[in-house]
Design brief:
This protein has nine helices and 14 strands. By secondary structure, the protein is an alpha/beta fold. The protein starts with 14 loop residues before the first strand and ends in an 11-residue tail after the last helix. The structure holds ribose-5-phosphate.
């Protein structure tokens, strides 16, 4: 019988990372953690604004990763990802993985009313057609989006990235982790388990797209630090309504934590006036200048997590081991 200790480790297959233009600092962070250079490419525009791509080095036979969050300008960033995929496929790569730390168009993930699209599935079809054969993403708005792809999806979580900061900043006080709606309960439960704290859930109603109302709270926050955890902060409506309710219910501090800082429309005005005792997000989407100047915002990088995931894929190691909490 072969001695398992003498089995050689899997060797790393050759790979290359290319960056789209949505999130250059995250792409650099991933490359730095993997100790590789980003691939050379031209990413420009024709005079009519069509996207022009050219891969400027040999990529034949490589596993290639394209890092591109499909955040705003969503249509441009999505199209750039697709065109990059097409260029790489035609350059005879071995495989192409779309690394979309933020996967846009995810909110319409099922038909909730007659004659509405399932845009998350449409985007999955576009990514597949462009030639990608794997996806890495962080906190997909709905886990079932993984099933829209007929190839492997590595679905990473933002919670372990946010947890150390929250533990360090508020770990000495009594905490309740709050899900701002029923849909986020599973995510909030993981953070509550890590922080060894109880969980509360806001009974949220949607009055229309981007319009939320916090009706009631299930759980206790009186005399405690309430940490609201969400996947997305878009207009800030959900968080601000939840925050008002939590203060009414006696929370000593209200802290907002989320993976994706979408921050559109009235988000800046709302979040800067809401008086949060802490606001922490990840860098799946780069901050706009006004948010960069905001006093109490903390941005935690997902680069090390994405880099470790890529490394494990390249050596055929378990990615799910990264996700066990
Ligand atoms: C909703 O299901 C999501 O988890 C977020 O709560 C929502 O997208 C946040 O949007 P907004 O900041 O516009 O309320």
């Amino acid at each position: 019988m072969a001695n398992q200790n003498t089995t050689p480790p899997f060797s790393e297959r050759p790979f290359k990372i290319f960056a789209g233009s949505s999130n250059p600092s995250l792409a650099e962070s991933v490359a730095k953690h993997l100790k590789v250079d980003l691939g050379c490419r031209v990413l420009g525009r024709f005079s009519d604004n069509e996207i022009r791509v050219e891969i400027q080095e040999n990529v034949r036979g490589l596993d290639v990763y394209v890092i591109q969050s499909t955040c705003a300008p969503t249509n441009d960033n999505l199209m750039e990802l697709l065109v990059l995929g097409d260029a790489l496929k035609r350059a005879s790569v071995r495989s192409i993985c779309a690394v979309t730390p933020y996967y846009g168009y995810a909110r319409q993930d099922r038909k909730v009313a007659p004659r509405t699209p399932i845009s998350a599935k449409l985007v999955a079809d576009l990514i597949s057609t462009a030639g990608f054969s794997r996806l890495i993403s962080v906190d997909l708005h709905a886990g079932q989006i993984q099933g829209y792809f007929n190839f492997p999806v590595d679905h990473l979580f933002g919670v372990p990235v946010l947890f150390p900061f929250l533990q360090k900043s508020f770990g000495d006080e009594p905490i309740t982790v709050v899900s701002p709606d029923a849909g986020g309960t599973e995510r909030a439960r993981i953070l509550a388990k890590l922080l060894k704290s109880p969980l509360a859930i806001v009974d949220k109603r949607r009055l229309g797209p981007n319009e939320a109302k916090a009706l009631n709270l299930i759980g206790e926050v009186d005399g405690r630090v309430a940490i609201i955890l969400d996947d997305i902060i878009d207009t800030g409506g959900t968080l601000c309504k939840a925050s008002e309710l939590l203060r009414e219910k006696g929370a000593t501090k209200v802290v907002a934590a989320a993976t994706h800082p979408v921050f559109s429309g009235p988000a800046y005005e709302r979040l800067s006036q809401a008086g949060f005792d802490g606001l922490v997000v990840t860098d799946t989407i780069p901050l706009t200048d006004d948010f960069k100047k905001m006093n109490n915002i903390e941005v935690i990088g997902v680069g090390p997590l994405v880099a470790e995931t890529i490394h494990r894929i390249q050596v055929n190691d378990s990615v799910s081991a990264l996700l066990e909490y």
